[in-house]
Amino acid sequence: MFSEAVNVSSKITDILNQGNIDLLKNARTLIYYVVDQKDEELVAFAKQEGIAWAEHALTLELKLEWVQAIRRTLWHFVGILDVEKNIMNDRTEFYEIEKTINDQIDKFLNNFFLNYTKYKDTIFLKQRDMVDHLSVPIIPVSENVSILPLIGTVDSYRIQIIVEKVLSNIADSRIHTLVMDLSGIALMDRDVINNLEKVLAGVKMLGCKTVLTGLRPDLVRKMVHAGVCVEENAETKGSLQETLKNIF
């Protein structure tokens, strides 16, 4: 088996230490389930392996090489048994054995990849939700006032998250004033500026006042060129410190 999986063989100890995954023990388990056609156990084992492999960020390339090595090794011993005990009497019987073994191993691989992918997708979505939450940090400073300090680049994806988070937060918290500080904005293109106007309109429709602070000259110029007028839906102040001083 080791000669069939050169890349994996050199990493058996590393994989055991990294993810507590015993490749040799698992190979024996897989062969047992395949030979004895333990379908339910095979699928459950594939799920367990897929999640463990994804959880410890082990590559699919190594897993595929290892399973293919197990497949070739299993067929090697089937050939030896056939020579010694003539277990395959005719061609039909050979094809039946071939179908059984390969179908079982393919079933393991399919379920392994499915659960590996599901786990990775779940982690990705959790991480994206966390990033989305951190990218729209609405901070309550009193019962009626919250601050939204925007930092970095606001692109078309992030502005949609801002729309969703801001409107949901206002509806849930029933705040009276949202202070949106734009002093940390690095870049905001024209489409995003147009969407910002919609955010302000939505906030006003929910009965909340928006105070914009930290408007830099370059951002103001872009708003003017885009024909965006924020005065109708928001109040503007020079700095966040000035705004909070006035509010409190």
TrEMBL record:
Ranges of residues in domain STAS: 135-247
Signal peptide: none
Pfam families associated with the record: STAS (PF01740)
Protein name: Anti-anti-sigma regulatory factor
InterPro entries: Bact_StressResp_Reg, STAS_dom, STAS_dom_sf
